[in-house]
Amino acid sequence: MSGQGSTGNVLAALCNVFIPGLGQLIQGNVLSAIVIFMLVTIGYALWFLIVPVIFAGLIHLWSIYDAAMFKPDSYFER
Question: Any stretches that span the bilayer, and where are they (predicted)?
Fold first, then answer.
């Protein structure tokens, strides 16, 4: 993937819309994909408490944004 706005980033962001963390998994960030999936799934499962759903929704939106703005060089230079 070449960088921001590339086809791979758009595909990863679209994958995150349907399954949180799948976009990160496609981009090769396995740990962040697992953490995002678990946090969002647990938050949505606790829908009756309202507050976890709000946090899960925010994490879900952030994961879509993160997948869309992924720059491969920035993750490997740390």
Answer: 30-62
